[in-house]
Amino acid sequence: MLHNIALNFEDGLTRFIACSPEETVADASFRAGINIPMDCRDGACGTCKCHVESGDFDAGSYIDDALTEQEFARGYALACQIRPASDLVISVAASSAACRIKSQAVPVTLAAVERLSDTAIAFTLEASSAMPFLPGQYVNVTVPGTDRARSYSFSSAPGETALSFLVRDIPQGVMSSFLRDRATPGMPVTVAGPAGGFYLREIVRPMLFLAGGTGLAPFLSMLAKIAATGCAQPVHLIYGVTNDADLVAVDRLEAFAQRIPGFTFACCVAADASEYPRKGYVTAHIDPAHLNGGDVDIYLCGPPPMVEAVRGWLDRQGITPASFHFEKFAPSGLIERKAA
After folding, report:
1. Domain containing 87 — which CATH number?
2. Residue 277, domain member (yes or no)
3. Peptide bond between residue 194 and the one before it cis (omega within 30 degrees of 0)
4. Which of 11, 45, 165, 273 is 20 to 30 A from residue 92's alpha carbon, by CA?
């Protein structure tokens, strides 16, 4: 039996490899042309130390100088010793360039373009085979007829050939202009990736999702994954937009609320002139119960001012969540690739 191993590199690139329970992650990586840095293959040097984000594995044998008990307790392991017992997500302490990996361009075709509102457009690309990615990640999409690329988070579930995205319609935007004026189903498109450290980790405690505008996209992908695999923890999403017209895909959230036990959501609109019943910014609608006394994993995706506002609000509340993962994006589709 082969297990899927997602290797996340320091520069945000992700590569997937297949690894049997009888071989180490380092050996499977080398077989796939990925050279994880190491000075030995015996668990003695610690050079290949990595962090296992999720999954079960046999840690193998090693000496304390290579990996301490405290590091192992925090999820660290040695790639030269790990043998998988399930699918794994592993953060590698090196850049993709250091591991001799080149960016992977994948040809796809434009399948559909859908106007969701005056300010948002959805588009779907069709791949010849399922493109592996972690829910929450993004790809770089080259705009047909140009040499420019824009970064968009998947709004579709992993494991499908149809890849869906949300775009804010900007009058002079390179991608939105293409989708409005020139896009035709069947056109060839190139994507590169997947990438990004903003992805759904193993669910071990309550989660709070905070989405701003088209920053809803990665959460739609995460929820699709949760709906498929199940979740024993409560998940609450607060979706904030500026104007009424910016509120899209609420029907999808309602469908997830029907499918996922323990999933709830709320939408809010910031504009004073809004007719929506729930007004204000997302922080105004975070209840103490959603924070679970700090024992909560918070995921946040939105424009930079929103990210900074939420971080400041948490500081003022004296709340330090168990984990806080965030991604900032510009309306143009340029993503600031950060997560913490």
Report:
1. 3.10.20.30
2. yes
3. yes
4. 165
State which of 92, 115, 135 marks the end of a domain: 92
Domain shared by 221 and 137, yes or no: no
Residue matched to tokens 């069709």: 126
Lowest mean pLDDT among 92-101, 172-181, 256-265: 92-101
Residue where a domain terminates, one of 174, 195, 216: 195
- If one counts every other C-beta atom within 10 angstroms of the C-beta of residue 86, the result is 11
Q: Tell me the mean pLDDT in the region 108-132.
A: 94
| Residues 187, 109 share a domain | yes
Same domain, 119 and 79: no
The whole-model pTM stands at: 0.87
Which of the 8 DSSP states describes residue 279? B
SS3 call for 57: strand
| Helix or strand holding residue 178 (H, E) | helix 174-181
Token output for 209: 């999702």
Q: What backbone phi and psi angles, to 5 degrees, belong to 283?
A: -65, -25
Report the domain count for the chain.
Answer: 3
User: Do 193 and 155 meet the contact criterion of CB atoms below 8 Å apart?
Assistant: no
- Per the structure, the complete domain to which residue 170 belongs is given by 105-195
Distance CA 207, CA 203 (A): 8
C-beta contacts of 21-24 below 8 A and 24+ residues apart: 21/58, 21/83, 21/84, 21/85, 22/83, 23/83, 24/60, 24/79, 24/80, 24/81, 24/82, 24/83
> CA torsion 259→260→263→266, rounded to 10°?
-20
Assign 336 a pLDDT band (cuts: 50, 70, 90). very low
Residue type, 258: Q
Please state the length of the chain.
Answer: 340
Look-up of token digits 């499977």:
28
**Within a domain: residue 97?**
no
Residue 190, Cβ density class (10 Å: 0-12 exposed, 13-18 middle, ≥19 buried): middle
- Tokens 């592993």, residue? 90
